[in-house]
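Person: I keep going back and forth on a fold encoding question. Show me how you would write down a chain together with its backbone fold. Please set it down just below, with no commentary around it:
Helper:
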Amino acid sequence: MKKTLYTVTVLIIIIATSAFITESKPKLYKNLKVLPKDITKPELDSIMKSFTASLGVKCTFCHVKKEEKWYFELDASPNKVIARKMILMTNKINKKYFTFSEEEREKMETEQTELNQIITCYTCHRGQNKPVPSPQPQMKKPD
């Protein structure tokens, strides 16, 4: 009897432990198509703040808010769809042109070269919701 009770108790503990270990972490965010699915709240907040600062916009530029409730998972705004494409574009550019080997990083650090040589939203937008065109050359006024 004691042996059976002991065996059942051990089995229950094993089952409970394995269920706890294999229990999947609940998704924090819905409809992430470009950003990492396991992104943390501080990481996502930081990225979103950089977008709003780089484009000079508020959250409603891309996200839906109805009666004080946010619906971040909706793709109702064309700006959100464009933002995803822009993220993919900048990631591709940065990966292709700004991936540094450990040796290159050490050399830049030694020479005090700026390591933040990457393309971001701000590179083109400069705080405007539409990318800022190149500056036009100034024509000298005749004397």
